[in-house]
Write a structure and sequence with these properties.
Length: about 425
């Protein structure tokens, strides 16, 4: 079988289109819904914990689905898991349209968490199956670029559609079109990539000592159990544990952007399209910069980009409440987006570097479990911070400090994982 982006360009583009649609699916929930939680869905003003309830539900469900998706993908194959994720998403637009209370939004977000855990995991795993080791940073960078470009596009588009058609009608038509197209394409056009992963294992075995090997964790079974994999990723291998904790904490930023940025900007008098553009700057910067930061990590390495990305992203979060005006908020969003672009694809690439092909899908699934659990844990933390501080701004400081400390842990416990820059002896 042939490996590399060029040799598999058709499927590579199909997978990029899939993750663009995955991003648009979550993006449609990240502008209109939190901004109009009080007026449209009956959330009382100042109910910070109730406001973050849907993000908490999303985080815990998506984290669990990431964990499950990795194991399922090694048994069922990537394509079936992807299609299952899209089928789960089909009722979401109707639930939002007919919502009688905020609890309907929470139920829709639970389905969204299942969808995102299954589909986003598979688009990443599938591309890693058929591309080369020296392309992983570029591949994950392009994957996340496409996904978060979709998030940003959806945020802007739903802001305008909500103004033109009404919030419920706008989300119904937008969500129905995106999810419907994605389901059809995953069924008709996406190929199964599990054979590439199995062929890579055979190539490693036949190459012997001639191939440059990454520093894989030691004393791991050839076919590790779920319990063994969870222990390895969560605490047994210090490098994997450092990457997992950084992934968890960086999702505090995304929980803040999702739950509180629109509410904060709405309180400052910014219109729905204006909120869409400011939050969109974060998404566009994050998405576009990943095109370069992923490729950069293939040349310079992952470790320093990851640590500095944590610190720069946290600085962008801290800047947001320190000033006022659309220009200041957009600049703060751009700084946070740049930091996220430095760390986001390269944390995943670092995991993929030192995960053996036999259990790479499981390793990525467990990393993504911890990472997206950060939505839930972070949302609880920022909701508590806002409640204790009596204002939304307190949540910004909670997240900024968490990013600073987590980056320090990653810098101290982690190491360079690129096999060319730090190969196994």
């Amino acid at each position: 079988m042939h490996f590399g982006i060029r040799a598999n360009l058709g499927q590579f583009l199909q997978q990029l289109l899939q993750v663009l649609l995955v991003g648009m699916t979550i993006g449609m929930m990240r502008n209109v819904v939190p901004a109009l939680a009080e007026s449209e869905f009956g959330v009382p003003r100042g109910s910070f914990m109730l406001l973050v309830a849907f993000v908490v539900a999303f985080g815990f469900v998506k984290g669990a689905m990431n964990f499950l998706a990795g194991r399922l993908a090694e048994d069922m194959g990537r394509k079936r898991v992807l299609l299952l994720g899209w089928l789960v998403a089909l009722p979401i637009p109707a639930l939002i349209y007919f919502a009688q209370s905020w609890s309907w939004v929470v139920v829709a977000t639970v389905l969204l968490g299942i969808n995102q855990g299954l589909t986003w995991s598979m688009t990443q795993t599938s591309k890693l199956d058929f591309t080369r080791a020296d392309q992983r940073g570029l591949v994950i960078g392009l994957n996340e670029f496409s996904g978060y470009l979709g998030v940003a596009i959806a945020g802007v588009a739903t802001g305008y559609l909500a103004t033109l058609l009404g919030p419920r009608e706008g989300l119904l038509w937008f969500g129905g079109a995106v999810i419907g197209v994605a389901t059809l394409l995953s069924w008709l056009s996406v190929a199964e990539t599990l054979p590439w992963a199995r062929d890579e294992v055979k190539r490693h075995a036949s190459a012997g000592s001639q191939v440059m090997r990454p520093r894989y964790p030691t004393a791991v079974s050839e076919r590790p159990s779920t319990a063994e994999m969870f222990a390895l990723m969560s605490w047994r291998d210090r490098r994997m544990a450092a990457l997992c904790q950084a992934g968890l904490v960086e999702k505090f930023v995304d929980a803040l952007v999702w739950a509180f940025w629109p509410a904060f900007l709405h309180q400052q008098g910014v219109s729905l399209p204006g909120i869409g553009w400011i939050v969109g700057v974060y998404g566009f910067t994050w998405g576009a910069a990943q095109f370069f930061t992923g490729r950069l990590s293939d040349r310079w390495g992952r470790h320093l980009l990851n640590a500095w990305g944590m610190w720069i992203c946290g600085a962008g979060v801290a800047l947001m409440p320190l000033g006022s005006g659309s220009l200041w908020w957009s600049a703060s969003a751009a700084v946070a987006g740049l930091g996220m672009a430095m760390l986001y694809p390269n944390l995943s690439a670092a995991v993929a570097d030192i995960a053996h092909p036999n259990w790479r899908a499981s390793a990525i699934g467990i990393y993504r479990f911890w990472r997206d659990l950060g939505y839930g844990i972070g949302a609880l933390g920022l909701g508590a911070a806002a409640a204790l501080g009596g204002q939304l701004e307190s949540a910004f400081w909670f997240v900024a400090v968490a990013m600073l400390l987590s980056g320090a842990v990653l810098f101290r416990w982690g190491e360079e994982t690129h096999p060319r820059l730090n190969p196994a002896t």
